[in-house]
Each structure stands twice: as C-alpha cells, then as structure tokens.
C-alpha cells in the first residue's frame, strides 16, 4: 500500500497538478493540506472521476485538510482535533481506510516568534500530543501524516543557523515533535533515510528550489503496527519543479501487507 501526504497550497488552483500527480504516482491513500477552500468548493467530482473518494474539512481562504482513497470512500472518524471546542481552524481530519486509521493534519505555522500565533502553535501541538497518546493506546495501525511545520533536526533544514528563531525551528517546537516520537511513533522518512538530507518544502523566493534550499516539514508518524510494515519512503521532488505547483512536494511511504 502506498500512502502519500501533500500540502497542495490551494486545491482548486493546483487541481491540474494534483490530478496529474495522482495519475502518475497512483497512491492508495492521500492526505492533503492547505485546501484553501470551503467545504462546498471542494472538487469532489473531479477527484471521483480520477478514481478517488474523499472526506474533507474545508475553510474559506485558509487551512483545510482532506483524505483521499483510491477506489473507495474513507470512513470519517473525526473532523477537528479534540481539546479546544473554540478552535475553528480546519486542521485535522481522520478516517479509516482498509484497516488503517489515518490522521491528516496541518499544524499551525506559528510565525512570528514570539507572539500569539506561536503560542497558538504550542497549544495545538500539546493537544496533538495528548490525542496521539490516546490513539496509541488503541493498539491499531495508525498513520499521522501531514504538514507539521517543524524541522525536527539540524539536518532537516538547509541552513540551521539562519532558522534558529523561526517558529518552524524553535527549540520548543522541536521538543514537542520529539515528544511525539518518544511516545512510540516512528518518523518514517528519517528512519529509512538515515542522515541523508531530504527536503519536502522549498520557498518560491530567491530561487530556493534550484539551490536546494529546502526544509523537511512534511512528516509521517507511524504507530508500531504500521512501522513494522514500512518498506519504502520518499519525496516526489519533480512535482515541485512543475508550473503552477505547490511550494511543497508530495511525500510518500509504502507499507507491506499484514503478515
């Protein structure tokens, strides 16, 4: 099974890019972030024509997450991260697909630091950590995939010194991510790529992609029942080079069948 995550940065504006990639890569499950579209503007018909059922949690102009499944409709299990009933941001959706519970998330950016946006990011991360711990207690196959807006280690950013006080690289955020891993989640890309520099995001500015001035901020965290089935993981960098594309590239894992 091939599972992918892709911050699409505006699903309707990037729909041709998304559909082309779906046709080429043929992932079984896809987590999308930054839809930037309300629920009624989600392109469900176009995705259905491409062979994918979907569940989504939209928001006008900002945020928005969705889960796609090839040849099936995901079974929605949660819309929104628990822990703050007043949080109206569309940043988390969860569904069951072929025996796997998939959580798709778009963690807040948090800039500028310091400030209220950074504090919101830390609160959201605390809620995620608490809920992730509850999920692990279920002892079922779970994938938490998406744009975490954090570079966990120095090797995950092209110039660590330059990013020290950015909300994506602040020590508080890195500790929060490490707290997730310490619960028992496996960072799929880092596990299979060792100390190799591997990026998932390149800014549109200053020729960042051509210079490979990238960041690894899109992650797969796997529960033990999925981690033991992990076969491969990578980034479809070529998609980032296309016209009218997102500033992120699709990231994917392959897992084997239950033995």
Number of helices: 8
Q: At the fourth CATH level, what is the homologous superfamily?
A: Endonuclease/exonuclease/phosphatase
Q: What fold name stands as the CATH topology? A: Deoxyribonuclease I, Chain A
The global form is globular
Rg from C-alpha positions? 17 Å
Strand order of the largest sheet: 3-4-2-1-12-11
Low-pLDDT residue intervals, each spanning 5 or more residues: none
Total strands: the figure is: 12
What's the multimeric state?
single chain
Strand content: 25-35%
Give the integer mean of the pLDDT values: 97
What structural class should be given to the helix and strand makeup?
alpha+beta
Distance between the termini: 14 Å
What's the story with the biggest beta sheet?
A: 6 strands, mixed
What features would you describe in this structure?
With 259 residues, the protein is α+β, with helices and mostly antiparallel strands. It has one domain (2-255): Endonuclease/exonuclease/phosphatase (Deoxyribonuclease I, Chain A). It is 27% helix and 25% strand. The chain has helices at residues 15-25, 44-49, 116-136, 171-183, 188-193, 208-211, 224-227, 237-240; strands at residues 2-7, 29-33, 52-57, 65-70, 75-79, 92-97, 100-106, 142-147, 186-187, 218-222, 230-235, 251-255. It has a 6-stranded mixed sheet with strand order 3-4-2-1-12-11. A 6-stranded mixed sheet has the order 5-6-7-8-10-9. Helix 3 links the parallel strand 7 (100-106) and strand 8 (142-147). The chain is globular and about 45 Å long. The two termini are 14 Å apart.
């Amino acid at each position: 099974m091939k599972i992918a995550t892709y911050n699409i940065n505006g699903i309707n504006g990037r729909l041709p890019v998304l559909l082309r990639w779906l046709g080429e890569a043929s992932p079984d499950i896809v987590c999308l972030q930054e839809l930037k579209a309300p629920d009624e503007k989600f392109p469900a018909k176009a995705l259905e024509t491409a062979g994918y059922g979907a569940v989504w949690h939209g928001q006008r102009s900002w945020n928005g997450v969705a889960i796609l499944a090839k040849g099936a409709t995901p079974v929605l299990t949660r819309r929104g991260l628990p822990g703050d009933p007043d949080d109206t941001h569309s940043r988390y959706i969860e569904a069951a697909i072929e025996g796997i519970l998939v959580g798709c998330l778009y963690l807040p950016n948090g800039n500028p630091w310091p400030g209220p946006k950074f504090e919101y990011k830390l609160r959201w991360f605390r809620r995620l950590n608490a809920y992730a711990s509850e999920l692990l207690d279920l002892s079922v196959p779970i994938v938490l995939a998406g744009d975490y807006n954090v570079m966990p280690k120095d090797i995950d950013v092209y110039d660590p010194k330059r990013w020290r006080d950015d909300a994506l690289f602040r020590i508080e955020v890195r500790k929060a991510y490490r707290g997730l891993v310490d619960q028992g989640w496996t960072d799929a890309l880092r596990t299979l790529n060792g100390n190799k520099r591997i990026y998932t995001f390149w800014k549109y500015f200053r020729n960042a992609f051509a210079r490979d001035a990238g960041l690894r901020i899109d992650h797969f965290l796997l529960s033990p029942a999925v981690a033991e089935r992990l076969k491969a993981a990578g980034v479809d960098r070529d998609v980032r080079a296309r016209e009218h594309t997102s500033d992120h590239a699709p990231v994917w894992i392959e897992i084997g069948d239950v033995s």
